[in-house]
Amino acid sequence: MIDRTLLSEQAISDRLDGLAREIDLAYAGREILAIGVLKGSVFFMTDLLKRVTNPVVVDFLQVRSYAGTQSSGNIQLVHDLSMDVENKDVLLFEDVVDTGLTLRKMLELLSSRKPRSLRVASLLKKDLHENADITVDFLGFTIGKEFVVGYGLDLDERFRNLPYIAIWDPTR
What we know:
CATH architecture: 3-Layer(aba) Sandwich
Shape: globular
Oligomer: single chain
Number of domains: 1
Helix content: 10-25%
Strand order of the largest sheet: 4-3-2-5-6-7
Strand content: 35-45%
């Protein structure tokens, strides 16, 4: 059950404005190959890229690691990219960095394909010791260990369409 709103629609929108400015400065007119991790990053990625003024090319990949509210620890590549990343400035969009296992695997995969640069944009990063070593170049918000839904984040494919981010509490 939804416990409470963690991040309002307005708070998310305001932060996306700031992230777009950061991305435009970092890439200074260079074309960005924006790679979204399906399905959770879609809302974040599309809303943010509408604010970016640099040229952008978009592709997606899909991995699976969650069952309900828990990460399975097993990362499966469900859908690979349709474009070559070699010598491209890649910006990987993630919805939330939890333990970091999935992001580490995706960065390893993309790095092996020899992009010119590889950076990460994530809407959320949980404040956990397991992911402390992971750098998120463009971060929306740091949150606690709560399980969250909304704005693309789901629980068994539900709640993605909420325009805000809420804490899910199964005990309520």
